[in-house]
């Protein structure tokens, strides 16, 4: 036992940790706010959660539309089965939990009760990829790999608050089921500085560049944009293509950008197995685009617990590590 | 059974006596059992034992309880009947043929290629099939959502009836749904549990002990009644008792029905019980004759 106070150290990032950098512009709870706004004009919208309303920003909706909010308790199978039943009666449910529980625990219910009958149920998963320091129990590093095999399911991996806000009404308008990789709490606002709007099913070129093309989804688009700025200082001209819809994948836009002499890199907040890298490589192979693609993403392993900045650095998805990887690839 | 001005059939009492109602259910169940044997024979196999066992429950629902429109299976004002046990589809098809939802002649396409009547029930194939069951333990979770959704839209008088088996009581999701239904006070939800005491690997009591079943449902907040599920009178009395105390924002209700696999056909009732019953080619006519003889004896 020591008589002095212990030295402060970087601590495990809480489940509600923001992924925003200290100096970054943010918007609070864009999902809950957008859903509550949508419900003002669309009477079909209902919200459900499995004891994670506060942690998925569903509480904003619950507060504004208490009669249309349904607490299912820590029962993810019921959450998605009941969402299917509500959709069968003509409602448009948004059902939130953590991505790990949606993808791993409730897969059968999402697959057979929601996706097979192609119901308009919108699955909202918090803590996608490496956005919590809690370790494998909470880190959904393989959620997209799991969900990409599910027929009918549309998968969206938004970058920032703008993506989330604009996607919510489009997810509700889309007739079949969707899965949204939620960023919650204070969510960075990045894409408003670009000539960009979210369009379900579309990838967009955010910036052009002659030397390198970064193809990214989710929060890694924010990192890709930061890395592109940093690489400019090294006289490397970097393009960034943002593909927030992982399935169905916008092969046309992505392959048009991929099929050039530039160094091609994919960036995803997800294991390099079965996510964005796989989607790009599959699309390229189908079209006969023979091209080396460098995957930046999480390794095919169970990840450590700890502080998010430490872990993002460790696993190569921090801005600095992206810059290093690109420079090394360019030789 | 009445026909409304819109053409919808409303199963129900119509001022008939208890005996008349019972007779109507028994007649429908008898014909449904014959249909099940006919379907089974075409395939040479199938879940005939379950269909025979559950015929009285299914006939009570379609003859006496459910509000539906045979010509319009998606009629907005219908009650919902969910077949969580997808493999009981053979029994379900027999019941909906009796209800006029599919033609009786079509039953012989059961489980054939391109048939609307697949071996495991699926909503997209069959008129009047609300869900694709078969991955057991799903039906009650979906039923909870339907009951919530109907009530939210001011249609709480429409009932949701979920048919499940005793084997499905092994599934944790069934109990998630049971808890959720009671928490949300889904008085418009009724569960029918077919206690046929048999599951894939053997007798339910050996596979995973689930008794005491009534006490479990009551502990989860449900009103529970246990009856002989092969006794039409007992089934209708249970429905009537629950109806008297039913409110859209009240307790969910369950009728636990003890049934006999192969009921009505002594050859199958007495056979060593199997989840997927094999019946030899020459046995089908014996089964039919026994079923018919049993009916005549009852008269």
Automatic annotation (TrEMBL), chain A:
<dbReference type="Pfam" id="PF02780">
    <property type="entry name" value="Transketolase_C"/>
</dbReference>
<dbReference type="InterPro" id="IPR033248">
    <property type="entry name" value="Transketolase_C"/>
</dbReference>
<dbReference type="Pfam" id="PF02779">
    <property type="entry name" value="Transket_pyr"/>
</dbReference>
<feature type="domain" description="Transketolase-like pyrimidine-binding">
    <location>
        <begin position="25"/>
        <end position="189"/>
    </location>
</feature>
<protein>
    <submittedName>
        <fullName>Uncharacterized transketolase family protein y4mN</fullName>
    </submittedName>
</protein>
<dbReference type="InterPro" id="IPR005475">
    <property type="entry name" value="Transketolase-like_Pyr-bd"/>
</dbReference>
<dbReference type="InterPro" id="IPR051157">
    <property type="entry name" value="PDH/Transketolase"/>
</dbReference>
<dbReference type="InterPro" id="IPR009014">
    <property type="entry name" value="Transketo_C/PFOR_II"/>
</dbReference>
<dbReference type="InterPro" id="IPR029061">
    <property type="entry name" value="THDP-binding"/>
</dbReference>
UniProtKB/TrEMBL annotation, chain B:
<dbReference type="InterPro" id="IPR029061">
    <property type="entry name" value="THDP-binding"/>
</dbReference>
<protein>
    <submittedName>
        <fullName>Transketolase</fullName>
    </submittedName>
</protein>
<comment type="similarity">
    <text>Belongs to the transketolase family.</text>
</comment>
<keyword id="KW-0786">Thiamine pyrophosphate</keyword>
<feature type="domain" description="Transketolase N-terminal">
    <location>
        <begin position="30"/>
        <end position="291"/>
    </location>
</feature>
<dbReference type="InterPro" id="IPR005474">
    <property type="entry name" value="Transketolase_N"/>
</dbReference>
<dbReference type="Pfam" id="PF00456">
    <property type="entry name" value="Transketolase_N"/>
</dbReference>
